[in-house]
Design goal:
The chain is α+β, with helices and mostly antiparallel strands. About 15% of the residues lie in helices and about 30% in strands.
Amino acid sequence: MTNHTPTPRSQEPEDIQKRDFIKGLTAAVLGFLSLALTWPLVSFLIPSNNEGAGEKFIKVPNFPGIPTGKPTKMTTAEDVDVQAFITTKVVYDLWVIKHAPDKATVYSTLCPHLNCRYNFDGAKEVFACPCHGSVFNEDGKCIAGPAPRPLDTLPYKIEGGELFVQYKLFKAGIPDKVEV
């Protein structure tokens, strides 16, 4: 039987052993990986900050530059924070008729019949839906086709000459304007 006595380790702080260094490095790497992998799960479980997003007014660019009295299709975008590290950009199309620098009519681009996208026919001066033949005048009133109600107007405000719109979706195919 051999007497085996362990080698004494130095207790001085400067004398870090190789094994202790690797243990500390492994613990730091595993701690960082654990944090990096659990962060998306934790952020998924926490409710997002998008509460009240439907109440937000979005700036429509170049409102002062559009012609008065002519329907103009405008596009605006909004950054919406989703879960974890993903940010999504939502694009909204609108029909805007500027009546004065402080007055406008803003329509959703979705037909109230089945939510198809309609266009403005400049020759006939009407909004026409290519899917099912609904036709609307510039006041939004349905003058032909199966649409059950006028075009859906959107809430807006004009501040400092700039147009801000509150985008909303409405149920299609019903005579009443009901927000989704």
